[in-house]
Amino acid sequence: MGTPVAEGKDERQFNGRDYILEESITGDFAIVKAWKADKYGNLVFRKTARNFNPMAATAGKITVVEVEEIVEPGELNPDEIHTPGIYVNRLIQGTFEKRIEQRTTRLSGE
Question: CB–CB of 22/59 below 8 Å?
């Protein structure tokens, strides 16, 4: 409020606090990767994928999700679902090579 960022933008007050209203970011497509999904499209993300993938999935007019595993409805714990299936239009189960890096060192004197 009161900065150049707010100039020309809609300002409103909610519960005694001033806010600047912005339009949301949307795209024609959102392509994201999730760890697991059920057949209804409810998504679970792992590790750093939790940072932006849930929001990206909700920002697309059409959301396509690649997952490592698709399970039957009811197999996911409702408390662990990060994005509800209402935002997902297409599910793809990918095949992933899980690489394990190994550090090899030589013993001294060899």
Answer: no
